């Protein structure tokens, strides 16, 4: 029997590879490498813990959103494009359901983040090579043959790679600085490799998203008294020194990257963000209720912008393809999971509290990054944001069952003390009470970090 922990590591690592088996019915790669560990997880995973009751509300917009976006099958002009996106949505939902169902201990959760660290290190080192020397030659993993000046790992575009590596760098930062998990040195290395790789992507949107979300969470940590504890202050100081050195060496390059930002945003060129946004608003105005159908945005673009066939704003894209109601559902999903994550940050368990903080930071970063770029529909982006949503529910679930278990123990202990002097009758009362207490599953050792 394959252990779940190895499947979880494989699942999170393989999510970086969008290569697979071509299916003519889809005119696309319908079965990906990530589907193998996903299937194994459904075969060998064991569902034990129920979700925390106060988090179930978040599933309502998820279910309604997934039903709503697929009514486009009745009117989408290009059914092939629609089928391709439907397959991507099914995969994302299967990953979402698998994670919330089969992660039942803090140890399971730790192995998920270990897989993230391995994946970030792997992709980060590829990006380093692309930045310093050029393509590695991993076309069979999806590396693009004609790489330009932006590193992108094995991803389809630098903006997508930037999104991926920024989200995982947030995770690795939290694990390296505030916790001492197994393989702590790997998390430290993965964070520094990831940050350099993020720079090498030269993607402005993910730079801004990463910097903004990390700065915001840093002030939250200062307010909560976590930032300058002995354990974390040393690493934050080292990171600050390296950041200062990096700014001195590469600050001019970063500034130069933003020199043409205004022209890219505001110019009258058909490919400017302004022109693309206006074209998207035209499509939304013409199809405000149900949109044009999943993956059919390209069928309605202005001929002048047909070369790009995208809008460079995932919010406008969702509204154009699913209508204003679809966008409202999408935003409600973001806010619902953000709310659960913020509430779970109050957990008394250090591991769960810090992972919740990392997931909240990741959602904030994602929400900022998809404003100008990249496309939410891209497989890498979609799979990882739904992983993050699932992990929010998992952390809340583990915290709920851990706190419930502690409460039951306190009640039993208190009842035992009160009845210790009443003789046999009192002992029977305690035993009777214990028999009526529902069993609380074991979610793993209290501390998995040193």
Structure overview:
This protein has 450 residues and is an all-alpha fold. The protein has one domain (4-250, 271-405). 66% of the residues lie in helices and 2% in strands. A two-stranded antiparallel ribbon has the order 1-2. A hairpin with a 4-residue loop joins β1 (20-23) and β2. The longest helix has 40 residues, at 379-418. The two termini are 29 Å apart. The model is unreliable at 424-438 and 445-450 (pLDDT under 50).
From the N-terminal CA to the C-terminal CA, the straight-line distance is 29 Å
What would the principal axes of the Cα set say about the shape?
globular
**Largest sheet, described in full?**
2 strands, antiparallel
What's the Cα radius of gyration? 24 Å
Give the overall pLDDT as a whole number.
Answer: 86
Secondary structure tally, helices: 15
Count of distinct strands: 2
Q: Give the percentage of residues in beta strands.
A: under 5%
Supply the helix-strand structural class: mainly alpha
Helix and strand run:
HEEHHHHHHHHHHHHHH
Number of domains: 1
Cross-sheet strand order for the largest sheet: 1-2
Helix content: 55-70%
Low-confidence spans: pLDDT under 50, at least 5 residues?
A: 424-438, 445-450
